[in-house]
Amino acid sequence: MLSIRRIAMIPGMKSPSPPIPQSTPAPYAPPKARFWGYEYVPAERQLLHSFLSNRLVLGALAILASLILCAVFAAWIAPADPLEQILKARLKPPIWDERGLSPFYLGTDRLGRDVLSNIIFGLRVSLLVGFFAVGISMVIGLTLGLIAGYSRGFWESFIMRAVDVQLSLPLIMVALCFMVIFGQGLEKMIIVLAITGWAEYARTVRGTVLSIREKEYVEAAHALGFGPWTIMTKYLLINAVTPVLVLSAVQVPRVIILEATLSFLGVGVPVTTPSIGLAIARGYQVLFSGSWWASIFPGLALMLLVACINVAADWLRDALEPRSREQV
User: Fold this and answer.
1) For residues 110 and 285, is the Cβ–Cβ distance under 8 A?
2) CATH classification of the domain holding 271
3) Closest to 30 in 3D by CA, of 45, 43, 44, 41
4) Which range marks the domain in which residue 264 is found?
5) Of 301, 198, 311, 309, nearest to 253 (Cα)?
6) Is 19 a member of any domain?
């Protein structure tokens, strides 16, 4: 049996080279970004991939963007004045009917007002009320939820009892009573819908704060002497942003439907303001007499707007909170 040293001396045979030390790869560290002093791991790539791979969401957002553009540039897109009454053209059918009349492409109502123009200008009111009312509700609920989750004691009990009372009442009845008391008006409707919608935000934010207020980094902030306002804004608020965004996306279509309902009942915006709810109410008076277009087309526009926002809200919920999809 030849030894290793003897084999190395055989002519024509190369001496074994020493093993090359392999460097240990460094563990993967995702890139981090900073925003207002906060360090976080961006997830733009995952969100972008989820967004581009979902054709339903792409289609819904494209339609929603078109509706928003129509609402913004309603004065240039609408074929007629939505409040102009042309009695000679009353109850004209859509343009594809042989009795149709240009420029009333979707027909007219019982007073000769253009249905398409009322829909375009009504989209502006619906989107304005939806986004502004939800924004004000989000600010109120976020503030009260942070106070209730952090302070505990009397203020937590007081705020949460107010939340229980608010959630126990039917939303449509509360908004209807407030509108009857304060009267019609676009600004009044935004304020009323904002006041009646803050409770869900407060409950959601309080639950998030309670789940993280005992974390090590929050206790370390207490030990370092940070004040309550600094802890709430720097350590607790940033963790409540995601559920609040998801809840806001879900609340927008609900507020839009509520605005249309109040306008349909005659306690929403005044009759001098174009609204989809008012258009549906006007068309409902002649719906069973054969003039179906005066009510059906505004209803379809409202349904399309709400459906597109709901699709986008569902995608946002699944993208930002994957665990919610697993629990369903």
Assistant:
1) yes
2) 1.10.3720.10
3) 41
4) 78-327
5) 309
6) no
